[in-house]
Amino acid sequence: MTLQGLSHDVDAVVLDIEGTTSATGFVVDVLYPYSRARFAELLTERAEEPAVARAIAQVRELTGEPDADAAAVEKTLNAWLDDDRKATPLKTLQGIVWSEGFARGDLVSHFYDDVVPRLRAWHAAGVRLYVYSSGSVAAQRAWFTNSPAGDLTSLVSGLYDTENAGPKQEPASYRRIAEATGIAGHRLLFLSDRPGELDAAREAGWQAVGIRRPGEPYYVQGVGDHAQAGTFDEITIRNSRSTS
Fold first, then answer.
1. Which single residue of 118, 136, 137, 156 could bond 232 by disulfide (Cβ 3.0 to 4.6 Å)?
2. What distance in Å separates the CA atoms of residue 96 and residue 145, rounded to the nearest whole number?
3. What is the Cα–Cα distance from 24 to 27, expressed in whole angstroms?
4. Over the stretch 98-128, which tens digit does the pLDDT of each residue have?
C-alpha cells in the first residue's frame, strides 16, 4: 500500500536512478544496446586509455582470466548485460560510451514527470541532493547534464557509484557516503525502488523510502517494511531552513 503524505526532516536526499528517478526500461531498451554496439571498438582501439585499461584489468580479475583478449572481455561484458549484473568494470565502460553518446547528441536521458520539479523545489529549500547509482559517476554526470529539462547538475552536490562508495546492498557503502558528505546518517534520506538497498541504508542509520512505480521491475515485489511512495510528490522534505 502506498503511504500518502510522507514527511522527513533531513539535510540531504540521496537518489537512486533506475526505477526511482527514471524508467528502467529506458536504460535497458536504449542505453544497454547503445553500449553493447560500441564495446568492441572501445576495447580494441582505446585499450591503453587509463580508465579503459583499469576496467579491462578488473574484468580479467573478476573472471579469473588474466590473459583474456578483447573478444573474451567483450563476451563477458555482454553476458553481464544480459544478466543485468552491477559489475563495476561494466558500469565504467558503459559510462564512457554513454557520456560520449550524450555529448554527441545521440542520447537524451529520461526522468519521470514528478522528479525534476521536486528536485528543484528541494534544492531551492536548502536540501542537498546526491546521487548513488550502480551506474558510473561518468554516466550519472552525463545523465543529469543531458536531461529533457536541460542541465540539472547544478542541483546535485555529489555523485556516488559502486567504485567510490561500494556495493549498494552493503551498509558500509552508505556509511562511506555519510562520511564523505559530512552529514550524519539519520539526517540523510535514501530513495530507491530496491528493497535490499533500502535495507542497507537503514542499517547504516539512514532514513529510507521505497519508490514504487507501476511497470518497474520491483513494483510487484514491493519494498518490504519500508515507507513507500508512488511519486516524489508524496514526499515532504523538511530541514532547518524551510519546508518543501
1. 118
2. 14
3. 5
4. 999 999 999 999 999 999 999 999 999 999 9
